[in-house]
């Protein structure tokens, strides 16, 4: 069965064909990293960020770790999704009354999407500890901050790109106040982006070592004719610390709390120097995808070693075929 991406064509998607002789289902851009160190005055490292097509070009919300140690969210623009111009001033939010919102202590690991003509950002926000912040914009100039989705502690809040059975749906990962040594992927629903409930477990950690410590949703799920393609990160604990790898699964279209297929193998794991060496070594952290419905091409934007931003590529048929042929089997 041929898989089709449900969505719009994106003829200017960044793309490189798979290297000759490669057997990888996801392959890296050969000029990675696309964003290096010290590209803005206010921050030293930009990573774990979100991008989206916008007015024929590309726009993004970027995590920039400032020189005082706190991460903040910045807008960036690009013609090709590879060369980025990122604003030095971080986003200043307004509340729903149009007044300046209380400045956020920190904001990191954003996701970005469009639903019914409005662009939404979710990110890890501070509210007596980490939780999921939500904001919206029409023009990427004025940003309205909504109520936080959950009480602390929670991370990796990722909205689906359309309402399902009349509700907004968000993947999330309950956590703790530190560098969480545990975590499963949950799903929550809301009629209005204010009140959240109907919480369900989507995916738990596995006996496969690469994802036996914790999991977290990655980019906005991609709707396909075979289900929601969920790219996620899986974490294992080694003698030298955590290792973050990229995995993939298919979720049911009408009830995405149900996993149809999950892959036993990682799709990408830290191997290149910009992934294995940096502020936090051995991290591949996916936060965004671009996809072309006409060709099935998918470009994955990921953070590397909490220091750089990088690109990788896959084809929807090849990736879903790999997921199905390497099922997550119980012990």
What number is the mean pLDDT?
A: 97
How many DSSP-defined strands? 22
The geometry reads as: globular
Topology as H/E string? EEEEEEEEEEEEEEEEEEEHEEEH
In terms of DSSP E residues, the strand content is over 45%
Q: End-to-end distance, in Å?
A: 29 Å
Low-pLDDT regions: none
Q: What's the tally of helices?
A: 2
The neighbouring-strand order within the major sheet is 6-10-9-8-7
- SS class: mainly beta
Describe the structure using short key phrases:
331 residues, mainly beta, five-stranded mixed sheet, five-stranded antiparallel sheet, 2 helices
Question: What's the helix and strand layout?
Answer:
Layout: E1 27-28, E2 43-54, E3 57-66, E4 71-78, E5 85-86, E6 93-94, E7 107-115, E8 118-126, E9 130-137, E10 143-145, E11 154-159, E12 168-174, E13 185-190, E14 197-203, E15 214-217, E16 222-224, E17 227-238, E18 241-251, E19 259-262, H1 273-276, E20 284-292, E21 297-304, E22 308-315, H2 316-325
Parallel strand pairs: 6-10
Antiparallel strand pairs: 1-22, 2-3, 3-4, 4-5, 7-8, 8-9, 9-10, 11-12, 12-13, 13-14, 15-17, 16-17, 17-18, 18-19, 20-21, 21-22
